[in-house]
Design a protein that fits this description.
The protein is built from 4 helices and 3 strands; from the N terminus they run E-H-E-E-H-H-H. The protein is of the alpha+beta class. The N and C termini lie far apart (61 Å).
């Protein structure tokens, strides 16, 4: 990721965008980030709005913190849990039907 101090920008926005490639440019003012030029090549349309959504970013930060703490589940664990929940839901469904009701 490149940085560009706003007062040192010498090209037009179009020039920076045309030469962006896959790397992003963070525009700074007094060394603080104020904007970014991000390549959208090979990016689906849903990714950008999600990446800008504060609620979604909180979910991502929370998930990354859980991973750092080792609070992760294997795919097998998730599958087992999902099967247990699906089985319990099916049993509850069958229990709620009155006796003698047709299936």
């Amino acid at each position: 990721m490149k940085t560009l101090e706003l007062r040192k920008a010498s090209k037009t926005l179009a020039d920076y965008a045309a030469n962006l490639g896959v790397e992003s440019i963070v525009v700074t003012s007094n060394r603080k980030p104020v904007a970014a030029l991000v390549s959208l090549r090979n990016v689906d349309r849903e990714s950008l709005p999600l990446s800008l959504d504060p609620a979604f970013m909180r979910i991502i930060r929370r998930a990354r913190a859980e991973v750092r703490r080792g609070e992760v589940f294997s795919l097998d664990q998730v599958k087992r849990e999902m099967l247990i929940e699906a089985d319990a839901a099916n049993k509850a469904l069958h229990r709620t039907r009155p006796k003698g009701a047709r299936r």
